[in-house]
Specification:
Helix 1 packs antiparallel against helix 2, helix 1 crosses helix 3 and helix 2 packs across helix 3. The strands form two sheets. A seven-stranded mixed beta sheet has the order 5-4-3-6-7-8-9. Strand 6, helix 6 and strand 7 form a beta-alpha-beta unit. It is an alpha/beta fold. Helices cover 34% and strands 21% of the residues. It starts with a helix and ends with a helix.
């Protein structure tokens, strides 16, 4: 019996040793399928947005383990093109949104980037593969601490995370080649524009209300001048702190005067039917 038990133990260990690389290969294949689906979706929406910058971002996203940035209960759908809850009323953006926002930032070589709204750290991890340095700010201390630990464990040594109000940016790490804000506001925070290099881009959802929000790309063209274009209609969690909208404001009209970044909108909200949302 003892010999049989030892044989079973050896077999079990062998199975575990094989399971880890098989699981890794499974995730690799699923991530490749995810990025292929994102590229096809972007191409259908706006063919000119399916460009070299998007391809560069998607190549990175095929390697970043998104499944490590969602709660265990959500991992079954980690690679689905959906936003997912991460606690404290916050979400991790859908993979396609991360791809489009990162591509729109058009990071130059050796970029210094500000990530506002760290969340679980996934956006920062994607940026870390494309930039020399990523400064990431999260207003919720518990989320900031968890993201800092997660990113360190996964080896993203070029990311700094601190807890603070993203409206103020991170002046000590400025100027930035690009800024990505993963929460909506009725305005672009002036401190963020001040911390952006001339020629740099800020990508952020902006609208008078949650329902009239659109994803803007704001380029700083001079000391006090900017241009802006829209990637389409979005609905993000709201910016909190100084950038919070006035909750008394209702309605709001989508600002159609802002030119599109491409010939057609790249993004639009994804609505989940009630029967699916309840699962």
């Amino acid at each position: 019996m003892a010999r049989a038990a030892r044989l079973i133990s050896v077999a079990a260990l062998g199975a575990l040793a094989l399971a880890a690389p098989l699981a890794a290969r499974s995730h690799d294949g699923a991530r490749k399928a995810m990025v292929a689906a994102i590229r096809a979706s972007v191409h259908r929406a706006s063919p000119d947005a399916d460009n070299a910058e998007l391809a560069r971002v998607l190549a990175v996203m095929a390697e970043v383990p998104r499944e490590a940035f969602v709660p265990a209960a959500e991992r079954r759908q980690a690679l689905a093109d959906l936003s997912q809850p991460i606690g404290d009323g916050q979400t991790i953006s859908a993979p396609s949104i991360v791809a489009v926002m990162t591509a729109a930032a058009a990071l130059p070589p050796h970029a210094n980037v500000l990530d506002v709204g760290t969340g679980s750290g996934y956006q920062a991890a994607v940026l870390a593969r494309l930039a020399d340095h990523v400064a990431s700010v999260e207003i919720m201390p518990d989320l900031a601490a968890a993201a800092r630990e997660r990113l360190a464990k996964l080896g993203y040594a070029n990311v700094e995370v601190r807890s603070g109000d993203g409206f103020a940016g991170w002046p000590e790490r400025a100027p930035f080649d690009a800024i990505i804000v993963a929460a909506g506001s009725d305005k672009v925070p002036q401190p963020l524009l001040d911390q952006l290099k001339v020629g740099g881009r800020l990508v952020m959802p902006v609208g008078a209300t949650w329902a009239s929000e659109q994803l803007l790309v704001v380029t700083r063209t001079g000391p006090g001048t900017t241009t802006r274009c829209s990637l389409g209609w979005t609905m993000f969690v709201p910016l909190t702190g100084q950038g919070a909208r006035d909750e008394r404001v209702r309605g709001g009209i989508y600002d159609g005067s802002i030119p599109g970044c491409y010939a057609a909108p790249v993004v639009a909200p994804m609505f989940v039917p009630a029967k699916d949302a309840a699962r």
